[in-house]
Amino acid sequence: MLSDTRTNAGVDNIATFCKMHVFENPQERMIALMTSGNLAISQAVVSLLNDGVEFGESGKPETLYSVPSMFRAAQLVSEAVRQTYNVHKEAMQSQGVSFEVGMMLGGQIKGREMRLYQVYSAGNFIEATEDTPFLQLGEHKYGKPILDRAVTYDVHPHDAIKLALVSMDSTLRSNLSVGMPLDLLVYGRDALCVAIRRRIHEDDPYFRQVRDYWSTALREAYQRLPRPDWARE
Asked: CA nearest 128: which of 146, 155, 110?
């Protein structure tokens, strides 16, 4: 998982907030949640998940530390989104503010499979599969083509890190609503704890190397392309 940290309510109101939240009990579970969209909504959803969501017939509050499976975790996040909407919808509608939030939920609980989900504003969700091996929140058009061309279901984690950083760099260059620093999280199957959690700043040596190398490689690649044989000199 890789997220930026920029939020904005206009060009003169830009701030930095972490959009990645980790719910970890080492050797028992590791669940990570990334957020996008309206910051107030996403913070309300995360707060509700921390406090506990009343869900199901029992009426007993559940958290991401108590759910028995990742599917149940996705259901819980979805319910938190719906409850947040029910609380705030009238006030938001009266101010002409749309309910925009997106969540990416991934991880593993001991004895269960590793899963990755994307939760939408309506509270419904989808799961990553072999046919769709990655999911993306927020801005798509700048970074997604790189992932579409290169990401496969069995991509090595080290290559996945490189591709995520290249994809994010393309978005950073073309969209002012996305900004540094970045938050990176890497999890390995059955580890039940975070393998890498790193905040990447502008002066991060490896990220600067990736940016410079990718820019040079793109320039060299287009220069090597053959000229169209129907173009005049």
From this structure: 155
- Domains parsed from the chain with CATH numbers: 2-224 (3.60.20.10)
Give the residue from 183, 218, 188, 187 showing the smallest Cα distance to 198: 183
Q: What is the pLDDT of residues 29-74, one digit of tens each?
A: 999 999 999 999 999 999 999 999 998 777 789 999 999 999 999 9
The reply to whether the predicted model has a pTM over 0.85 is yes
Counting Cα atoms < 13 Å in the Cβ hemisphere of 45 gives 34
C-alpha torsion 146→150→156→161, nearest 10: -10
Are 46 and 35 within 8 A, CB to CB? yes
Q: Is 8 helix (H, G, I), strand (E, B) or coil?
A: strand
SS3 173: helix
Amino acid in position 127: E
Helix 70-94 vs helix 39-51: angle between axes, to the nearest 10 degrees?
130
The string of DSSP letters for 114-150 reads -EEEEE-TTS-EEE--SSS-----S--TTTHHHHHHH
* Residue 27 CB neighbours (<10 A): 10
Dist. CA 12–CA 39, nearest whole Å: 16
Angle, CA of 134, 195 and 4, to the nearest 5°: 55
Measured distance CA(182)–CA(6) in Å, rounded: 9
- The sheet carrying 194-200 orders its strands as 2-3, 182-187, 194-200
